[in-house]
Specification:
Structural class: alpha/beta
Order of helices and strands: EHHEEEEEHEEHEEEHEHEHEH
Oligomer: single chain
Number of strands: 14
Shape: globular
Distance between the termini: 48 Å
Strand content: 15-25%
Largest sheet: 6 strands, parallel
Length: 265
């Protein structure tokens, strides 16, 4: 049994934080029941851990080339170490994904984030991915297509989510980018539908119960993105329609049709 645990810092991809880190830490906290469970990660992400962490340490990651649980252009500056209490067990992301788990066989525990609130309702939320890391700019759906799509949603309340550095806001829509996750949860839980190419914020939709439409190509690594959205990374069985397109560039009509089918009535 551990009396104190320090977990982090998390420096990797957001989607992997959602489905390869926070759920494991929750299970670990419940299993250990220690007096101190400190989590260290990106500013604004504390909402993912507020149900079990005794303290959250915001940590600015000096790097953008995130890959799974890693950040390939990040150098460990050690500044977070001053928060590690004497006698603490230090749990790192690599301990989990490097097959050196602190508690072997421990299964992740997921909760539903956010509560529906009519004051935070939007008919359509979207993540207009805008990043070129690792040469992935081709995954960004063109702004012209977002604008064309939103012309079909006349009279609807539409809002952008994501980070200010990794997503754009289409003119004429509400900008919710950069919002702390603890606040964003309620907006997602209150919305009708979430749209966007495969990304961490799109995976968050499944943990907030908002029906969503996501897309990517159909390539298979360990498994296809379609499998992640529909089963592997969808523990609450949130409604989703996944579109496979070889260039990550589905037609506006395809996205519109999927949105109309999956959206809450």
């Amino acid at each position: 049994m551990a009396d104190r645990i320090f977990a982090g810092p998390w420096v990797g991809e957001f989607g992997w934080e959602l489905f390869g880190w926070q759920g494991y830490l929750r299970a670990l906290a419940q299993a250990e029941r220690c007096e101190s469970f400190i989590v260290c990660g990106r500013p604004g992400h504390e909402g993912l851990y507020s149900d079990f962490a005794t303290q959250y340490i915001p940590y600015e990651v000096k790097g953008v080339k995130t890959d799974c649980w890693m950040c390939k252009d990040w150098k460990d500056d050690g500044k977070y170490r001053r928060y590690i209490q004497a006698g603490s067990t230090h749990v790192r992301p690599g301990h989990i994904h490097g097959h050196r788990k602190f508690r072997p066989g421990l299964k992740q525990k997921f909760i539903m984030f956010g509560k529906p609130d009519p004051r935070r309702h939007f008919d359509v939320l979207y993540h207009a991915r805008s990043t070129t890391k690792f040469g992935t700019g081709y995954r960004n759906w063109p702004a012209s297509k977002w604008a064309k799509l939103f012309k079909q949603f006349k009279g609807k309340a539409i809002a952008a989510i994501g980070s200010r550095s990794g997503a754009i806001c289409i003119p004429g829509t509400t900008d919710l980018r950069g919002m702390p996750l603890g606040e964003l949860f309620d907006y997602l839980a209150s919305g009708f539908v979430l749209l966007g190419p495969s990304s961490g914020p799109m995976h968050l939709g499944s943990l907030c119960g908002i029906p969503h439409v996501a897309w990517s190509d159909g390539r298979k690594w360990t498994y296809r993105n379609k499998d992640r959205y529909e089963k592997i990374w969808n523990p609450h069985k949130t409604p989703v329609i996944f579109i496979e397109h070889p260039q990550w560039n589905p037609a506006v009509e395809a996205v519109l049709s999927a949105a109309e089918r999956v959206a809450r009535n």
